[in-house]
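Render Remorin C-terminal domain-containing protein in 3D.
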Amino acid sequence: MATEEPQKVEIESPAVPAPAPEKVDSLPKVVEEKPVPPPVEDSKALAVVEKTPDSAEKKAPKESYDRDVALADLEKEKKLSFIKAWEESEKSKVENKTQKQLAAVNAWENTQKAKIEAKLKKIEEDLDKKKAAYAEQMKNKTAMVHKAADEKRAMVVAKRGEDLLKAEEMAAKHRATGYVPKKILGCFGG
């Protein structure tokens, strides 16, 4: 046994597992155990353990804690992703509902505008008909006034002719009788 390398021997200590591989967030950690070399035959029956740094002893309890934390973080991320997906779904539902309602409002507005424009067009047509009817009535009245004026002119001309004829007859009578009228002129009467 002279060729064996010096090893550090601890009394009554169980084998300590080696540190775990690098931390992976998506998968739980698996702890690999190294095989323990067979104990050295000594009279005291001591176990032989390879020298490991002190940090390995401190990490052993933390490995399960780190795994639990990683699993909790994974579960938390999963919940957050479901919440985010739900939120996006709700937002899209709200947007779709809003778009549908806006389309309904626009359709209602267009329908109301069309009704108003149709009513305005009908009123304009009615006004145009009334305007044409009133214009026709005014033309008829104008024609009646013109006809009445022509009749009055004809009466005035006829009366003038009658008055002239009457004056000529009176003058002829006065000439025949030699009687001088008392009123020479109607405006200078005396």
